Amino acid sequence: QSSVPSLTSEPDSIMLVPAGDRYTMTDFAIAYFREAQSMQGLNGISAEKKSAATLVQHTKVPIQESLLQYADSELNELATKNFRTLMQFMGDQSKLKNQNEAECIYEILQLCKEKESLHDEVYCQVIKQVTHNPNQESVLRGWLLLNLLTGYFLPSNILMPYATKFLQLASSDPSSTHHDIAKTCQSNLRKNFMYGGRRHLPFPVEIEALLKGHGARRLAILMPGGMEYLTRVKTFTVAKELLQEICEQMGAGEQEEIQEFVLFAIRNKTVRPIRSEEYLHDYLLEDKLVTVTLRRLIWRTPLHFENRIYTDVHYGQMLWDYLNGRILLSRSKEMEMQVGILAMLQHWAKTEQQNSDPSREELKEYTPKTLQSSISPQALQSYVGMLLRSRQPFQPVDAKIQFIEHVMKLPFFGYNIYFVERVSDNTIPVPCFCGVNKEEIIVVDGTTQAISCVIPLKELQKMRTLRPVSDGGLPGIELNYGSAASPKTMWLELSQAKEMYHTIVVILDQTELHH
C-alpha cells in the first residue's frame, strides 16, 4: 500500500480552479480514500476508476470507518459518528429522540471547530452524500451544510483544488437544482481563503432561518443624520461588501473613498468598529440589541457634493460631532464668531427656517454642549442677527455644504476624540483628551487645548487593552512606540479604551491599503 500524504497542511497563497478533467473527486478518492488503497491492482485503470467513483457517491448505509486514513483511532470514531449525524440531518436515517435538524448542523460544525484534522473528512462525507443522491430534499440539505462548511472551514491545500473543481462543475450546470447554492459555496470559499472563516458558529435562530430557506437577514444601518439604510445581510457577508453597497448608493464608488468609511457595532454602551474583512454576522447577536452605524473615519479623499444623500450623511456626522464634543473646540473670541457662523448655517440648513431669525432656544440647540456655559446667549443672538441681516440666505443644501467646509477648517477636525481620565505621564494634566487620526495619536490638555504629546502612527510598535485595576475602575490602553534604540510606553485610562484600540487597528489597516 502507498502511504497517504498528510491532509492537514496550510492552504497555498493562491487559490486556482484546476482546468480540464483533472482534480475530480474520483481522482482524490483514488489517491487518498482508505478503501481505494485496498482496491489498487483491480483489472486495469478504468475499472479502478469506475470502482473508485462509487466511493464518492451517495450511500444509504452508514460508513464503518472514516473515508480518509487516520492513525488516531479517536478521529476514525469521530468521523463515523459524524457520518451518522450527517445522514440524520439529510433525512437518510431517522433522527434520535428529541434531536432536531439545527442540532445536527451545530454538532457537525462544532466537530470541525474542535478538530481541524477532520475538515477534509467532513468535506468528503458531504460531497459524497450530495453526489448521485436520488432524493432532492436530501440533496438540498447536503448543499445547505456545504454552504456553511465553505464559509467556516477551509479544506487542506491537498483537497482544495478537488473541492473547488467539484463546486465549479456543480455551479456550471444550469439544469441542476443546486447550481446557485454551488456558486454561493464558491464565493464563501474564496472569502474564507482571503479573510479567514467566520469566528462564531451560527446561533440556532440563524440555522433555523436557513433551513426555512431564508438565506439573508434584514438589517437597518443607522446613517449619520438619522437616516436608515435598509439592506439584507447574507450568512457570509463581510463589512467590505456592505460598505461598497452603501457608498455606491451615496455616489462614492471609488475604492479609495469607500475604504475611509467604517461600520460600527453598538451594543448597550460598547462601540466597536468592524474591520472591512470581518463578517457582519459575527457581530449580529441573537437578541437584536446590536445597532450597526456608518461613520467616515478617515478624511484623505476630497469631498464632492453632487449626491444629496452623500451631502446629508457628511452634514449629519459633522453636525453631531460638532454639537456633542467629538471635535475639540477652544474657548476663544474667534471660536465664538465661528459658533455664530455655524449657528446661522444650521438655521439655513432647515428648509422651513429660510426667512426667520432663530429663537434663543434654537440658538442653544445650535451651540456645542461644551461651549454652552461659556458663550453668552444675548451676545450670540445679536451676532447671529447681524450675520443674517448682512447676507442673502443659502438654500438648505448649500448651507449644509458651507457648514461642512467650515467645520473641516477647525484645528482638531479629522481626529477621533476620546475623554481620558488618567495617564501614565504625570506631566500631563488630567482629565485630558486623546485624538486619533490617519497619521498620529495626540494627547490634548483639557483646558488650554495645548497638545501635550504626539505619537506618529508609524512609530507605534505595539498596543494592548488593559483591564480595570480595581472594581469600578476604568479600562485602559497601553501604547508602545518609538524606535528600538529609544522605546517608550504610555498608558491611558478611559471608558472607551476598547473602541479606541479597535479604531486605531482599523486606521492602520486602511493606511496599509493606501500605501
From TrEMBL:
It is found in: Cytoplasm. One of its GO terms (molecular function) is actin binding. InterPro entries: FERM_2, FERM_central, FERM_domain, MyTH4_dom, MyTH4_dom_sf, Unconventional_Myosin_ATPase. Residues 217-515 form the FERM domain. Keywords: Actin-binding, Cytoplasm, Repeat. The keyword Ribonucleoprotein does not apply. PROSITE patterns: FERM_3 (PS50057), MYTH4 (PS51016). Residues 58-211 form the MyTH4 domain. It holds the Pfam family FERM_M. GO terms for cellular component: cytoplasm; cytoskeleton. Belongs to the TRAFAC class myosin-kinesin ATPase superfamily. Myosin family. This is Unconventional myosin-XV.
